[in-house]
Design a protein that fits this description.
Length: 323
């Protein structure tokens, strides 16, 4: 049996940083409302001439450097995104060209805010079977391309960014400290698509569509479905909350993260939180949080890390990774 082991992590945020007060200059909103309802204080947005693949490529380069692995050794690139540079080619193919991963096969996954866990699960299948040896799994989104900047109920919630993991397929007998991806759990329910979607009316007018969200309904689903996903990953691996070193949740709203913390009695100190500084970067929130917490020394080799997410689709997902 083979295991997908994390070899490197990277992240990238565009340099343009927009505070709540900056947004309040153009929208009928306030810093107080945004902080109180979401915990968000700022977000990074694409600069002129930048696109999703640029963010993804920068994150990938940092992850490769962190892993000490050359791009030419990568044989699989999976990018989770809902804001591709183009409908086609895949953003993953653009990344491949930008980083020089000439031997890789590359494709995108669309599962909205659950996208990174979905992409991790997909890559894990190739690595476990040995069909790929070294993979780049990237979550990259530029939500600023698809929010309606005149709609205060959604515009304040999102940001742009990318995060990446380098994973290697290793024979289980050679894995130290039980490292690797232990399980991934993916769920979808297309019946509630209308609670969170991007319209196509604008697309037919040759402009990108806009995000529409029934925030309060999504909030309720998030608490319920993330709860299910966390219970599933704990049960599947026969572990309790106390056995987990770090929870890395999707960063849609600090209140959702606190709700999960209260429900499962997970101390907030074990939750990796970036929503205050990054806002919701969709598929990028989890790998960006992993990058931050691994970089500052919180997440250490051999520690148990639970990932969880919920997003448009509806989709929801969880995973257990021993770092
Ligand atoms: N500034 C000031 N007032 C605002 C703003 C704003 N930016 N946005 C909405 N309001 C107003 C509303 O108009 C409403 O006013 P009213 O009472 O006069 O009608 C009031 O604030 C309350 O609005 P709600 O939408 O009920 O506020 P709520 O407390 O639910 O917070 C929020 C909204 C932050 C969106 C919350 O519902 C939420 O986080 N939902 C979940 C988001 C999420 O999990 N997304 C998941 C994934 S995203 C993805 O997959 C792409």
């Amino acid at each position: 049996m083979r295991r997908s082991v994390v070899r490197g992590v990277g992240g990238y945020l565009p340099s343009k940083c927009v505070s709540n007060s900056d947004l309040a200059g153009n929208l009928d909103t306030t810093d107080e409302w945004i902080v109180e309802r979401t915990g968000m204080k700022q977000r990074h947005l694409l600069g002129d001439g930048q696109n999703t693949s640029d963010l993804a490529a920068e994150a990938a380069k940092i992850a490769l450097q962190n892993a000490g692995i050359d791009a030419s050794a990568i044989d699989l690139i999976v990018v989770a995104t809902v804001t591709p540079d183009h409908p086609f080619p895949a953003t993953a193919a653009r990344v491949q060209a930008k980083i020089g991963a000439t031997k890789a096969f590359a494709f995108d996954v669309n599962a909205v805010c659950s996208g990174f866990v979905y992409a991790l699960s997909v890559a894990d299948q190739y690595l476990k079977t040995g069909m790929a040896k070294k993979a780049l799994v990237i979550g990259a989104d530029a939500m600023s391309k698809i929010v309606d900047w005149n709609d205060r109920s959604t515009a304040v919630l999102f940001g742009d960014g990318a995060g990446a993991l380098v994973l290697e397929s290793v024979d289980e007998t050679h894995v130290d400290f039980g490292r690797g991806v232990h399980s991934t759990h993916l769920f979808s329910d297309g019946c509630h698509y209308d609670l969170l979607y991007v319209d196509t009316k604008q697309a037919s007018a040759k402009q990108p569509g806009h995000v529409h969200m029934q925030g309060r309904e999504i909030f309720k689903f998030a608490i319920k479905l993330i709860g299910e996903a966390v219970e599933t990953v704990l049960h599947h691996n026969s572990i309790a909350v106390d056995d987990i070193d770090w929870f890395v949740p999707h960063q849609a709203n600090l209140r959702i993260i606190e709700g999960i913390s209260t429900h499962f009695k997970i101390p907030m100190e074990k939750m990796v939180v970036t929503v205050d500084r990054h806002s919701n970067t969709s598929a990028a929130t989890i790998p960006l949080a992993l990058w931050e917490a691994a970089n500052d020394g919180r997440i250490q080799q051999g520690q148990r890390v639970v990932l969880e997410a919920m997003g448009g689709g509806l989709t929801w997902a969880s995973a257990l990774v021993v770092w």
